[in-house]
Amino acid sequence: MAWFNRQQKGIVTPTELKREAPDGLWYKCPECKTVTLSRAHRDNAYTCVSCNYHTKIGSAEYFEIVFDNNTFTEMDENMISADPLNFVDTKAYPDRTKATISKTGLKDAVRTAHGKINGLDIVVACMDFEFIGGSMGSVVGEKIARAIDYALKNRVPFLMVSKSGGARMMEAGFSLMQMAKTSAKLALLAEAKVPYVSLLTDPTTGGVTASFAMLGDFNISEPKALIGFAGPRVIRETIGKDLPAGFQSAEFLQEHGFLDFIVDRKSLKPMLTDLLHLIK
Ligand SMILES: [Zn+2]
User: Fold this and answer.
1) 155 and 274 within one domain
2) Binding of Zn(2+): at which residues (predicted)?
3) How far apart are CA 259 and CA 164, in angstroms?
4) Is 158 exposed, middle or buried (0-12, 13-18, 19+ CB in 10 A)?
5) Domain count, the chain
6) 185, exposed or middle or buried, with CB in 10 Å at 0-12, 13-18, 19+?
């Protein structure tokens, strides 16, 4: 008798002893080191089930959270950056963008789309930190400007999700112009009384904080997000004073009147819906 012949027929494993096949991917919280299934983490809006740490996510995830059934129409999705200054650092700028596009699958540091949130029309522009530190160059400015144009033309509320290291060094002055351009477009939106909600996520800094991110009818943030213009060291050296604890955190900014409220990502969609009902 061969040892590999099955002797017993009908061997079954009771359901409670079956292990669910893992996704092959586990998520380890960088804050409290709790390990969960990636799927459970995703179902929890990418926040830690144990300490509520809000993982940094990109436009794909925010679109999935905000838009009904993850259905939306993306605008200007193929716009990519030119190289107006022939900029070269350790790499030529066009090579850097090309490499980043193939690495991330993104075309630049912002994606814009329109769709529905609990049945209400909304235009969303969401930044991607993965793309050269979420830096604001001409493409970011132009896509946001066009998304605002669409919101204005169709009288649809505009949501901006910011996550940025600031202006894009490789476009220098062209980057800085985007601050004025987006701010001017937002002024038109305000004049037409179309609501604008700005969600600042971790981190929102530099020229983005100094322009569209702080110009919302409502400026809201995720818990513990880092929000600031310059880094703490630069400020400390400029004013010659030590900075208070928690300086540049969302909580500190709310306490000092810079933010209207802080929203847990799990309640983002219902909160936005309530807000839009309130101000429409
Ligand atoms: Zn955690």
Assistant:
1) yes
2) 29, 32, 48, 51
3) 17
4) buried
5) 2
6) buried
pLDDT classification of 245: cutoffs 50, 70, 90: confident
Give the Cα separation of 109 and 280 in Å (integer). 29
State the distance from the centre of ligand 1 to the C-alpha of 53, rounded, in angstroms: 5
User: Is 119 in a helix, a strand, or coil?
Assistant: coil
Residue numbers belonging to the annotated binding site for Zn(2+): 29, 32, 48, 51
Per-residue model confidence (pLDDT) at position 17 = 66
* Tokens encoding 91: 């790499």
Mean pLDDT of the region 188-209: 97
Contact criterion met (CB below 8 Å) for 141 and 160: no
- The annotated binding site is made up of 29, 32, 48, 51
CA 135 distance to own-chain centroid: 12
Q: What is the pTM assigned to this prediction? A: 0.90
The string of pLDDT tens digits covering residues 8-23 is: 777 777 666 666 555 5
Ligand 1 centre to CA of 65 (Å) is 20
What is the model's pLDDT at position 92? 97
Shared-domain flag, residues 42 and 158: no
